[in-house]
Design goal:
0% strand; 2 helices
């Protein structure tokens, strides 16, 4: 496996750990609705948000590519 790919996989692993920690933190926060009289109108999208199905497809595609790469490197 090339050094660039190994470095990228290590970076991906770090990003996944951060994502998991952020999800755990978000799930622990209370879900109490609060009216924000002075905030901007929100359409439900957060920074970097958007279409959940699109994000899931992109993540699935990335996982498939990494799995294929790892299988090829073992052969």
């Amino acid at each position: 496996m090339s050094a660039a790919i190994k470095t990228s996989l290590l970076g991906l692993n770090d990003s996944l750990e951060k994502l998991e920690a952020a999800v755990e933190k978000a799930m622990k926060q209370p879900k109490l609705p609060q009216d924000d009289l002075f905030g901007a109108v929100s359409n439900g999208n957060r920074q970097g948000g958007g279409d959940v199905k699109l994000f899931a497809r992109r993540l699935d595609s990335a996982i498939d590519k990494v799995e294929k790469l790892l299988k090829e490197s073992r052969a």
